[in-house]
Design a protein that fits this description.
heterodimer; A: 529 residues; alpha+beta; FAD/NAD(P)-binding domain; Flavocytochrome C3, Chain A, domain 1; Methane Monooxygenase Hydroxylase, Chain G, domain 1; 3 domains; eight-stranded mixed β-sheet; 17 strands; globular; disordered N terminus; B: 112 residues; Alpha-Beta Plaits; two-stranded antiparallel ribbon
Chain lengths: 529, 112
């Protein structure tokens, strides 16, 4: 257990905000490059975020198979990905993941082959923490960041936040470079492990002037037993679904199967049975994914015989695709001293308009983490501390008008209410998106203008999280309105087809006034592997 | 949501206070920690994995409370199941990590 003194003030070459997969890789790499590194995590680096509860299988392709793999993914990405970035991600993942063997016991299959591709989440995060600690990274657990700090010239110079297990004492880190690895956001849905993922890095980055990209690609959901958070999808490859009358729902194979489920759930309750899972798989399921059976066993459900109710939780930008726009090979955001990695960054570069869910996103978290860590360490070289810094935080920290009580929990509920319903975020209409935008604008205006939670750190954190959630939801809905077509994870009921004019990414910038502009410029101007 | 911290099993190590990603527990000097903010629980089961005393029980219901009887729970064999199957701590080597089978399982599901 770490206890930090009240009023913690630190100077380090590199600050990493967020201790999930991307942040832990970034911190380790920055330290390996010789930088002094501090990692600030909202929860505990090891359990916090969506890696720890999952089973990340990386995009893992031997060199001889890459040309075909990249061609297939590029085709699926509907025109918005970049094969050069795919090649970089595959190579970096292939080269770097085995290096974790010092801390992760990679198992062997029956033939004695070491298996690198798919790791168990809790063990993966435990290993990444051990790796970072071994390299001298100072980890601050339960220390959420509230805002970035910047110099007059715009260079980001660190962040400040609070130590929520140390009487909410403030912390401030003055840093030569900062990496945002705060994850994506599922908009407070029941997605497993996602509660801390409230889009904080998107808001902090935008407050520093960074652009975002691909925020319209958030129409994605994962199945789970009703009332549970167990969004582990492997078992559902064997699922049979039934409507309220007990009739089997015909689910087409492939990526559209959740759309069929979402339509069925709009019509009424849906149940599921896993009876098609072969005995041999059932017998080993607890060794493959030890958490998958927990809800069934504890509820006394035999999922291989009984029919149990299911639901869909929105993945938002987690298995969705958007995030901070990456402008160079080192995962810079375009703001001096500010880098982004993992789900905090847009994954359109490798996933385009579809989900990088599972394999691609894991490989991206690893490689973008390494690149951002390397880039931050390089940027911080020769850095001299002592510049005057100001806090960049706005909504939830520095209200524009008279302070008055604002219902923070209601604001959070508003976000879930616009981003979770299947008839709002999965099957979109332009009129519905405009209604969502208006509802979100009202909540945003109230929070921005008036919210200044009292002295409790917990309340301040809640308010900042609400601001980030509202900002992200507004960007998502606004980008969705600007994309007058259906493409990938953006489905418009009004225009259910790809419109060739929209074969480009959409950038959003601005927080109060949101501008959407097409991004025709290649994201990676030169080769940099 | 987290439903129970079995005080008689608890060793007071406070590992759950540290490991809980959403800061649900609160350390109490000279006593077991208390479940201070159950409403912040994200039903991720991570605390159970880090509790070497198997003194914690998370109900799968993320949307409401589920009353549980400590005696019934102790008799159920559910406590510590996640940690055991994960092969953590004293269970290392007893339950091998076969996560790598995931690919073959997906192939099987696709009929390949």
């Amino acid at each position: 257990m770490r206890s930090v003194a009240p009023g913690l003030a630190l100077r380090r070459d590199v600050l990493v905000i967020g201790g999930g997969m991307a942040g832990a890789w970034a911190a380790a790499e920055a330290a390996r490059q010789g930088a002094s590194v501090v990692l600030a995590e909202k929860g505990y680096c090891g359990t916090s975020g969506v890696t720890a509860t999952a089973g990340p299988g990386h995009w893992w392709v031997p060199p001889e198979g890459r040309r075909a793999a990249i061609a297939a993914r590029n085709e699926a990405a509907l025109g918005l990905a970049d094969p050069q970035w795919m090649e970089r991600v595959l190579e970096e993942t292939w080269r770097s993941l085995p290096g974790l063997a010092r801390h992760y016991d990679f198992p062997r299959d029956e033939k004695g082959q070491v298996q690198y591709r798919a790791l168990r989440g809790p063990e993966y995060m435990r290993a990444l923490r051990a790796q970072a600690e071994e390299l001298g990274v100072l980890i601050l657990d339960h220390c959420p960041a509230l805002e970035l700090l910047a110099e007059e010239n715009g260079r980001v110079g660190g962040a400040r936040g609070l130590c929520r297990q140390d009487a909410d004492a403030p912390w401030q880190v003055e840093a030569g470079a900062t990496v945002l690895a705060t994850g994506g956001t599922a908009f407070l849905s029941g997605l497993l492990g996602a509660r801390n993922n409230t889009g904080d890095g998107y808001l902090m980055g935008a407050e520093a002037g960074a652009q975002l990209s691909g925020l319209e690609f958030t129409g994605i959901y994962t199945v789970a037993p009703a009332r549970s958070t167990m969004t582990r999808s492997m078992s559902y490859a064997f699922a049979t679904y039934y409507d309220a009358d007990g009739h089997e729902i015909v689910v087409p194979p492939g990526p559209d199967n959740t759309a069929t489920l979402a339509r069925a759930l709009l019509a009424g309750p849906v149940t599921c049975s896993l009876h098609r899972m072969p005995e041999a798989v059932r017998a080993r399921l607890h060794l493959v994914s030890p958490n998958v059976m927990l809800p069934f066993v504890r509820w006394g459900i035999d999922p291989f015989r009984d029919r149990f109710p299911v639901t869909l939780h929105t993945d938002g930008t987690i298995r969705g695709t958007g995030g901070l726009r990456i402008v160079d090979a080192e995962c810079g955001t375009g703001i001096p001293g500010l880098f982004a990695a993992g789900d905090a960054a847009s994954r359109e570069l490798i996933a385009g308009a579809i989900s990088g869910g599972g394999a691609q996103n894991s490989a991206w978290a690893l490689s973008s983490g390494l690149w951002a860590g390397r880039g931050a360490a390089r940027f911080a070289r020769g850095w001299r501390p002592g510049a005057r810094l100001r806090g960049l935080g706005q909504a939830g920290l520095r209200p524009l008008r008279a302070v008055r009580p604002v219902e923070i929990e209601a604001a959070r509920a508003t976000v879930l209410g616009e981003m979770q319903p299947y008839d709002k975020n999965f099957f979109r209409t332009q009129a519905g998106l405009r209604r969502s935008r208006a509802v979100l604008d009202t909540a945003w205006g109230e929070l921005r203008d008036h919210a200044l939670p009292g002295h409790g750190g917990r309340e301040r954190l809640r308010a900042r999280e609400a601001a980030a959630l509202l900002a992200t939801a507004r960007w998502s809905v606004t980008a969705a309105l600007a994309r007058a077509e259906s493409r990938g994870l953006h489905r418009l009921e009004d225009i259910p087809r790809i419109v060739p004019d929209f074969a480009h990414r959409l950038l959003v910038d601005g927080i109060d006034t949101i501008r959407v502009t097409p991004d025709h410029v290649p994201a990676l101007p030169e080769t940099a592997a | 949501m987290i439903e129970l911290l079995l005080e008689e099993q608890c060793t007071g190590c406070n590992a759950c206070v540290t490991a809980c990603p959403t800061d649900v527990f609160e350390a109490v000097p000279g006593a077991p920690p208390r479940i201070a903010r159950v409403e912040d629980c994200q039903t991720c089961f991570m605390c159970e994995l880090y509790c070497t005393a198997d003194a914690l029980y998370v109900s799968p219901d993320a949307e409401g409370r589920t009353p549980v009887e400590p005696a019934a729970l102790l008799a159920s064999g559910l406590l510590g199941q996640f940690r055991r199957h994960s092969g953590w701590h004293e269970w290392q080597g007893h339950y091998p990590n076969e996560h790598w089978r995931m690919d073959a399982i997906f192939r099987l599901a696709r009929g390949g």
